[in-house]
Amino acid sequence: MQKVLVTGGTGYIGSHTAVELIEAGFEVVIVDNLSNSYADSIDGVEKITGVRPAFIKADCASPQDMQQVFTEHPDIQAVIHFAALKAVGESVEKPLEYYKNNIYSLINLLEILKNRGGHLVFSSSCTVYGQPDVLPVTESSPIKKALSPYGNTKKIAEDILADTIQSTNKISGIALRYFNPIGAHPSAHIGEFPMGKPDNLVPFITQTAKGIWPELKVFGSDYNSPDGTAIRDYFHVVDLAKAHVIALKRLIEKGNKTPFEIFNVGAGNGVTVLEIIKSFERATGVKINYTLTDRRPGDIEKVWADTSYAEKELGWKAQLSLDEALLSAWNWEKTIDKQSHAKAQRGG
Ligand code: NAD
Ligand code: WQD
Predict the structure, then answer these.
(1) Residue 150 alpha carbon, nearest atom of ligand 2
(2) 348 CB contacts (<8 Å, ≥6 apart)?
(3) Which residue ranges in the chain fall short of pLDDT 70?
(4) How many other C-beta atoms lie within 10 A of the C-beta of residue 181?
(5) Rg, the chain, Cα only
(6) Quick one: which of 47, 49, 41 has its CA closest to 14?
(7) Pocket lined around ligand 2, Cβ cut-off 6 Å
(8) In terms of C-beta density within 10 A (0-12 exposed, 13-18 middle, 19 or more buried), how is residue 36 classed?
(9) Which of 124, 201, 205, 326 is the best mutation target for the ligand 2 pocket, counting ligand atoms within 8 Å of the beta carbon and taking the most?
(10) What is the rounded CA–CA span in Å between residue 93 and residue 19?
(11) Which of 121, 155, 215, 342 is 20 to 30 A from 313 via CA?
C-alpha cells in the first residue's frame, strides 16, 4: 500500500482528502500542528472509512519536526501539502507569520523530497488571479499582484515549486488552484469548523441558520452582477478531495521526470451571494436572516473557473450540485454542539 503524508490533514479539505485517499487504497499519515483544527476530525475519518490514519502533531515550518516525521515513516512516497494559515484579513495584520508559516513549511518539505525523492500535490488558490479581466479564468490567465500576504504566499509557493521541480528529477508536483470549496462529507462525520467568527460565506450561513449569529451581512449589493452581489465559483469539498487523489495518481503513474503542472479546480459556474442563500433555503427549508451591507474591503467582484484543462488532462469534473453541498454543510453544522462552538469562538 502506498503511503501518503497529508499535511494539514485534520483541517477542512485535508480531512476530506484523507477519506478519499483511504477509500482509494492509500495509507495515510496526517501531520498537523492543530493551529486551526481539532484532532477529532481523525475520529470522523475513521468512522467513515473504518481505518484510523496515523497522526503526528508537528509543525511543518520546523525542519526538525519534519525530519522526525520522515524518520518515523521512511516509506512515504508522496505528500499532499495542505498545511497553511489561510485567513486573508489576519495575513494583512501579521504578514511575517503568514510568510514564515506558509513558505518555510513548503521549503522544508521540498528540502526533504529533494534528497529522498517523492511526489507533491500543493494547495494553491484562485486568489492568484486577483480580479481577472477575462472570465472564466484559465490556468494561463495573468497572475495579478496579490491582494494580501496570504495570496502572495500562494503565488510565491507556486514559483518555488516550479523552480525546484525544474531543477531536479527527484520531485514531481501538481498545484491545484481551488476556487470556493464548500459543504461537508455526506455522512456529516467531518466538515468545516472555523475557529472564531467565520470569514467565509457558507459557515457564516450555517451558523446564522443555527442562531449563533443574529444575521448574515451580505457584503456589497452594487456589484456588476445580475442581483448586485459578488460572484464566486462554489463547489463541493468532496469533489475537491477526489481531485487530489486523481492528481496524486497521475504523478505516481508519470514518474518524477514530469514538469510541474497547475490546474484550476472549481465547478466552472459563477454564482452570486444571494443565489447561495436561496439555494441553502431551498435545500434545507431553513430561512436565513440577512441584510445587504457595504462591500468587504479587498473583495473582488467576480471570478469563476474554466476547468476544461482539468477535465481533459485529469478527467476530473465537479459532480455534486450546489444544493447537495449546502445541505451537507447544514447537516454537518447540526452535529456541532453549542459548547464546541463557544470553544471555537474563543480560538480553540
Ligand atoms: P484549514 O485551516 O482547515 O486546514 C489547514 C490545516 O493546516 C489546519 O488544520 C492547520 O492546523 C494546519 N496547519 C497550519 N499551519 C501548519 C503548520 N505550520 N504545521 C502543521 N499544520 C499546520 O484550511 P483548509 O480550508 O482545509 O485549507 C487547506 C489548504 O487549502 C490551505 O493551504 C489553504 O490555503 C488552501 N485553500 C483553501 C481554500 C478554502 O476556501 N478553504 C481555497 C483555496 C486554497
Ligand atoms: C464569498 C462571497 C463575500 C461572508 C476567500 C479567500 C480566497 C480563497 C477563498 C483561499 C464574497 C461574501 C462572505 C459573509 C458575505 N481562499 N460574504 N458575507 O472571498 O471568495 O475568498 O476564500 O485561498 O483567498 O479570500 O470567499 O467565502 O469569504 O466570500 O457576503 O459573511 O461571500 O463578500 O463575495 P472569497 P468567502
Answers:
(1) 24
(2) 34, 38, 195
(3) 346-348
(4) 26
(5) 19
(6) 41
(7) 86, 88, 125, 127, 151, 180, 199-201, 204, 216-219, 230, 232, 273, 296, 299
(8) buried
(9) 201
(10) 34
(11) 155
Q: Which of 10, 36, 158 to mutate to test the pocket of ligand 1 (most atoms within 8 A of CB)?
A: 36
**Integer Cα distance of 32 and 18 in angstroms:** 13
Cell of 251: 504523478
Would you state the pLDDT for residue 344?
A: 78
Distance, in Å, from the CA atom of 105 to the CA atom of 190, rounded to the nearest integer, reads 25
DSSP 302: B
Residues 39 and 10: their CA atoms lie apart, in Å, by 6
Go through the chain and tell me how many residues it has: 348
Q: What is the pLDDT of residue 348?
A: 66
Q: What grid cell was written down for 115?
A: 534528497
What gap in Å lies between CA 167 and CA 259, rounded to an integer? 10
- Ligand 1 binding site (Cβ under 6 Å of any ligand atom): 7-8, 10-14, 31-37, 59-61, 82-86, 101, 105, 123, 125, 178, 180-181
What's the confidence (pLDDT) of residue 256?
75
Expressed in angstroms and rounded, the spacing between residue 230 Cα and the centre of ligand 2 is 9
Coil/strand/helix, residue 167:
helix
User: How far is ligand 2, taken at its centre, from the CA of residue 201, in Å?
Assistant: 6
Distance CA 84, CA 180 (A): 16
Residue type, 39: A
